[in-house]
Amino acid sequence: MAQKYDIYHANDLNTLPQAVLCAKIFRRKPLIYDSHEVQTSRTGYDSRIYGISEKWLLRFTDVCIHENHTRASYIEKKYHFYPKVVHNYADVFQPDPCNQIDLHDLLDIPKEEPILLYQGGVQMGRGLDKLIQAIPFFQRGVVVILGDGRIKEDLQQQAKAMYLDKRIRFLPKVPVTELLYYTQNAYLGFQLLNNVCFNHYSASSNKLFEYIMCQVPVIGADFPEIKKVIQEEKIGLTVDSHSPVAIAQAVNRLLGNPALRDELSHHCIQAREKYNWNHEKKLFLEIYEELGDGYD
């Protein structure tokens, strides 16, 4: 409270009450509410109190930001205003040759086996149980799950029960500054969110853009924002993420057609010029400039 700031910025609902106190009660400063999630329809947030508190607290905000237009439309229907949209794209990746990571060596995977990568939170609704169910149908390859979360132990037990020890590896999460050095080892990357809530259904997803940045073709859920990027930019395949059979068919299509995989990878080069934070942050900075001008 001793510090004075020109603008207050709340990332998600859990920080908004404190921001309202600082910006509007103890100070008279502009307040940005930057919601990276759909607070009223997400896993683990079932109480009505989240919607009630968000609706009440929004009256104190000067600007509300959401990460894509599907979510912005949802907010418009719920609260009768259309928020600003700033996508959460990945930073431009310029790999340092001195920091290379070889996942084949690290995980003792034979060089001829392609790495089929999932990176991110190991949580319910990410389609990881369906991914493991699909592994026996893959023509070849080793699945690598990179990340931590509540269901990681359950997934390890699932894989063990299915005798998949040689077909799957688990790695703990790594610092974000190192993540893409792991990503670039992959033959393909998974984004298999399940439709368990609107937050999942409407997601753009960080990992989608991280795969693009590393020229890794994506097998992604057939949801609006994910589908839009994958199909318009031709950087992967969309599937019914609830179906192990559909997942396996897409994987085998890319495993059996290296030329198609390379074509999709090549399309990522152009896509990453569009879907990157260097480009998107201009919109973010414009919001700050407009807000600052309005309070001069």
From TrEMBL:
<keyword id="KW-0808">Transferase</keyword>
<dbReference type="GO" id="GO:0016787">
    <property type="term" value="F:hydrolase activity"/>
</dbReference>
<dbReference type="Pfam" id="PF00534">
    <property type="entry name" value="Glycos_transf_1"/>
</dbReference>
<dbReference type="GO" id="GO:0009103">
    <property type="term" value="P:lipopolysaccharide biosynthetic process"/>
</dbReference>
<feature type="domain" description="Glycosyl transferase family 1">
    <location>
        <begin position="107"/>
        <end position="270"/>
    </location>
</feature>
<dbReference type="GO" id="GO:0016757">
    <property type="term" value="F:glycosyltransferase activity"/>
</dbReference>
<keyword id="KW-0378">Hydrolase</keyword>
<protein>
    <submittedName>
        <fullName>Glycoside hydrolase family protein</fullName>
    </submittedName>
</protein>
<dbReference type="InterPro" id="IPR001296">
    <property type="entry name" value="Glyco_trans_1"/>
</dbReference>
